[in-house]
Structure formats: C-alpha cells, structure tokens
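re: ur question from earlier - yeah i can do the single chain one, its not a big deal. heres the input i used so u can compare w yours
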Amino acid sequence: MAIKDWPAAERPRERLLAHGPGVLTDAELLALLLRTGSAGRNAIDLGRAALSHFGGLARLLASTPDECARIPGLGPAKYAQLQSVVELARRALREDVRRDTLLDSPDKVRNYLRLSLGRLPHEVFLALCLDAQNRLLTADELFRGTLTQTSVYPREVVKHALKHNAAAVIFAHNHPSGVAEPSRADELLTAGLKQALALVDVRVLDHLIVAGNATVSFAERGLL
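and the output i got, formated as tokens:
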C-alpha cells in the first residue's frame, strides 16, 4: 500500500511533525528523504531493503553509486539525495567546530572526523590547523593512500602549517581495517611530525585515529 493511503497518524511525515524526528525508524527517515519507492514497494520498504543490504545506516551512507545501484530503486538521483544529506551534516559539524575552541569541544571534533573519515575504503591523512586560541583555521586532506599505507611527508606538513600561519595542529587519519588502535608506524610518524613542526614553533596537540565509529586519541593515550 502506498504511504499516502495510510492513516495520517501512521505516516512518517505527520509523525515527525507531531512528535519530532526521534520517533521515526531509520527506514522511515530514509523514506522521507527518498520520497518514492520502486515497483512493488513503497519508500519505507525501499529504505528497509537498503538498510538490510548494507547492514545499517552508516554503510549505506558511505556506499558508492555502483553499490547503491544494486538495489532496485536506488539509482543515481536517490544516491545524490543521500550524499547531499551526508555533506550537509559534515558542513554543519564543521561550522560547529570552527565556532569553538577545539580543545573545549573534543566531541564535536570526533563527530566531524567520524563523519568525514569513518567509512572511507582508503587511508586519508588530515591536518587541522589551529590559531593561537586553538580555533580551527582549516581542515585539509594532505595525503591519500591505499588500504594499508599512506605516505606522509613531514616537509609538506610543515609547509602546510606555515601557509596557514598555524600555531598548532591536530592530525587525524583513518584505519579502513576497522581497528582504531595505533600501530608502531603511526607512533613513529607522529613523533617525526612533532619534531619537524617544533623547529618552526608549531605544536602538535593530538593525533586521532578513526575506524568506523571508534576514535583513539594519542594525547589521551599519552603518546605525544
């Protein structure tokens, strides 16, 4: 049965307006975003099929166009709708991070990094440049690697920090393996970057590793 034929009190849009988005299931929220279903199933059924196929919301939102296309009804237009929501959320979090002193809002930083890096299939190394008050100046991808290795060049990191007149930096990279624990190579890299940046009076405040929804902080582990 089409959702428009349901009793008003059971329709996702009406329930959201009456009680807030928190009362809706993931499939119902997806239905509001996707708007239409496919042959033989409504938008909620399509949302359930997508969630079942990917094993959850996070993997669905991190999927590629080709992966989405394997589900009947999830073509390029609906993929674009999903990705627009992810990007809006990322930009909203980035605005929040920019407004605050980073060391006073670690949860916002972690949320931003989880959304940016948590489900990528390849390693990415980010540098967050901070001013003297620990406010975010810029957050940029500096290096991209394979599933297991990223080549990070200290000279390029130093040039980037100086370009943005950074007083301090926070590094972040992801582990596509799903394990957030720092490796010995991660520790050596961080120590090398810290030493190189100290020569130009730029402090390294933290290095965060992201794997899915998990994050590990070098500063909290006493590894800096």
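The chain has ten helices and five strands. not sure if urs matches, ping me
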